[in-house]
Each structure stands twice: as C-alpha cells, then as structure tokens.
C-alpha cells in the first residue's frame, strides 16, 4: 500500500511508520513538530533524546534499507494538506496529527484554543483532501476511549442498538468526554460520520486506551529510533509516569481514590491494531469503530503492579494518594467491549510482571535524564 501517516513524529506515529515500512509498504510521514514544541514550552521533554524526523528516517534506512519519506509542515494549513494527499495518492491515510494531551488542553485559554483549532482543522482538512484527491483511500483515525467517559452501562464498540417506544435504531454510542482534548475527539467522530454517510468515505475510527511502553521490533534496532517516551504530568500516560517515578524514587502519584479504571495496551499492540485496521478497510460509506485496548486496570491496580515489580528489583517503591487535579469519577462501572480487533487477529502483549520489569530496566539506563519537577501535576481542571 501507499501509506500516508499524519503526525508521523509522535509517540505512536513514528513506530507506526517504521512498522509499515518494514512490512514493505510505501510510507510518507508528515509532521510540524507541534508536540515537541509544546513539550519544550511546558518543560515536558521526552525522557530519551530523539533526533529530528528526517534524521530518524535516514538512520532507519541505513539500518534496514527501507525508505520513509518525510515532509515537515503544518497540516492545519489546507493547502499543504491538499498538496500532500494529491502528490502521494495514498491507499491508506493514518491520522495521528492532533494535540494528544488532556492536561495541556485544560491548562488555559491559549492551550485550549490551540488544541481545538489544530485537532478540528486537521481532521476537516484531511476529509476534504480525501474528497477531492483520494476518494477511494481508507482513513484510519486514532480516536480515544476517553470519548465515552465512564457510563454506568457496558461500552459497546462505537455503536449501540436502541429500542424506544416500539421502534429501534442504531446510533453512535453516547459520548461524555472528560477534557477538551477528548471532546475534540468526539467532534472528530461526528465529523467523520457526517462525511462518511454523505459522501461515501471509508473510515475506521480506533477508540484507543492509554498506551505504555517504549519497545518495538524496529525501535529496538538503535537508540535513535526510539519513540518519544514522555513521563511528565502533561504528556506522559499513567503507566509510563509510574515506571519513571518508581526509578526516580518519587512516590507513585495516585489521583484521589485511585478507582479510575481505563483500558490499556502495549505500544506493540497499537502497531498491530493499526495494521489490522489498514489491512481490513471499511467499505464505501462505512464508519468502522473498534475499541482498542487489551486489558483494564484501575489506577490503584497499576500502582500496585509497578510497586510489586519495582520492589522485587530493589527500587523501594512507595505509593501516595494526592488530591485529584481532574474532574472525574474515582469509583465507577467500566466494562468496554473490545472483541473486534481480536477477531481480526490481534495477539495481545499483556502487562505481565516480566513486561513491567523490562520497561523498568530500560528506564534505569536513562535514570540520570529524569527531571523530577516534571512529574507532579501542574494543571488543574478546577
């Protein structure tokens, strides 16, 4: 396939680019380094140093012989988006190009506006670029399980059948996002559904849970190929934050009661899921939705697991509850359906003690790069 990856410099975008290139596809990535820029602005740089996108692509070609074409530019600019899609003529468009942090989106008006405009503009632009220059392409869009919130019923895979006053219908599952970032993802889904049913686009929307890890088959080939692994309160996902805190000797920060439950998956499984979605495209006029997770944990369960494994390695890990900076239920029902990707062949890498230990060992190697001031919450929803 000719694969166009929007947001190809990110924590997920770069490993995805390598994965598709290694599988023999023609890969082009586009990025404007937005995440790097705002990470620097907020003192939230990644744990491991990562070269520029063009340097990464050159190193990857030197090692593997596979080419990844790179374009540096802002996809919120409709002219650039149109040119990129027209010139690459993609079979598959993988859309990661959004500001991905809930805390950043809640930091203040400038951050909220940047999140809103970037995320909605890029999605709107790629829709129209497909309509005008690649109507037969299939879009794989990264959504988030955070769109659903924490309803007191089972979370279906995107759609729900409702019987009402003797009649029935199929609807998008109700959304109740907990941050502006997650709300922009809800708006993405609504935009996509409108253009899918109106113009017959082919779209798969992946409702992904929090991702953890820093190891993939390609990333392990050379330190220069590692993903952008963040551990701070703004861009670091829960598991990654806890792993670094364990190594740094900082008590694991459980927000409030710690009963907040989410669906998690290993970085390796993100690559599997995106590949499976691309290889099994939606039909014309279809919005496929998959819930992309492999297992569910509460915050307390994640803390207990990291503490147990860390202590077995001599790290003397402590756990500490702190006031919750977010507005969220701390005890709730949570049972998301996630069978679709398994039916396509997903083979999960679960969060075993060995997996946790391997991640801790990698972080121990970079212990001197940890900046403790980046760990405690610096953004409040209130």
Protein traits:
single chain; 382 residues; alpha/beta; Rossmann fold; 7-stranded parallel beta sheet; 3-stranded mixed beta sheet; 12 helices; 14 strands; 38% helix
Question: What would you say this structure looks like, in words?
Answer:
This protein has one domain (2-374): Rossmann fold, CATH 3.40.50. The mean pLDDT is 98. It has helices at residues 13-22, 34-41, 53-64, 78-88, 102-105, 109-133, 180-199, 238-248, 267-279, 299-312, 340-344, 353-365, and strands at 2-6, 26-31, 68-72, 92-95, 138-144, 159-164, 167-172, 202-208, 211-212, 252-255, 261-266, 286-292, 295-298, 319-322. With 382 residues, the protein is of the alpha/beta class. 51% of the residues are buried. Strand 6 and strand 7 form a beta hairpin. The strands form four sheets. Strands 3-2-1-4-5-8-12 form a seven-stranded parallel beta sheet, with helices on both faces. The protein has a three-stranded mixed beta sheet with strand order 9-11-13. It contains twelve helices and 14 strands.
């Amino acid at each position: 396939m000719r694969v166009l990856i929007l947001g190809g410099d990110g924590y997920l975008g770069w490993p995805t680019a390598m994965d598709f290139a290694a599988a023999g596809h023609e890969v082009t990535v586009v990025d404007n380094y937005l995440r790097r820029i705002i990470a620097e602005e907020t003192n939230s740089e990644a744990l491991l140093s990562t070269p520029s996108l063009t340097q990464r692509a050159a190193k990857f070609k030197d090692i593997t012989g596979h080419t990844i074409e790179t374009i540096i530019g802002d996809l919120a600019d409709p002219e650039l988006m149109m040119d990129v899609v027209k010139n690459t003529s993609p079979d598959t468009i993988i859309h990661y190009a959004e500001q991905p942090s809930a805390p950043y989106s809640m930091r203040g008006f400038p951050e909220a506006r940047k999140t809103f405009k970037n995320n909605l503009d890029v999605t709107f632009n790629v829709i129209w670029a497909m309509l005008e220059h690649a109507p037969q392409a299939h879009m794989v869009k990264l959504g988030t399980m955070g769109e659903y919130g924490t309803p007191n019923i089972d979370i279906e895979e995107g759609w729900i059948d409702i019987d009402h006053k003797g009649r029935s219908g199929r609807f998008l599952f109700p959304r109740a996002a907990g941050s502006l970032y997650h709300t922009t993802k809800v708006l993405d889904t609504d935009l996509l559904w409108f253009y899918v049913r109106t113009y017959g686009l082919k779209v798969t929307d992946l409702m992904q849970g929090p991702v953890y890890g820093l190891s993939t088959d390609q990333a392990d080939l050379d330190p220069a190929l590692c993903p952008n692994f963040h551990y701070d309160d703004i861009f670091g996902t829960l598991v990654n934050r806890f792993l670094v805190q364990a190594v740094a000797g900082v008590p694991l920060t459980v927000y409030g009661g710690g009963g907040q439950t989410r669906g998690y998956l290993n970085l390796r499984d993100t690559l599997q899921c995106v590949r499976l979605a691309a290889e099994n495209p939606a039909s014309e006029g279809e919005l496929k939705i998959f819930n992309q997770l492999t297992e569910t944990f509460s915050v307390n369960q994640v803390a207990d697991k990291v503490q147990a494994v860390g202590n077995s390695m001599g790290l003397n890990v402590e756990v500490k509850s702190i006031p919750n900076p977010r507005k969220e239920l701390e005890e709730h029902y949570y049972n998301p359906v996630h069978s679709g990707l398994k039916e396509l062949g997903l083979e999960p890498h679960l969060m075993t003690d060995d997996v946790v230990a391997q991640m801790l060992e990698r972080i121990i190697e970079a212990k001197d790069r940890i900046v403790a001031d980046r760990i405690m919450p610096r953004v409040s929803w209130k």
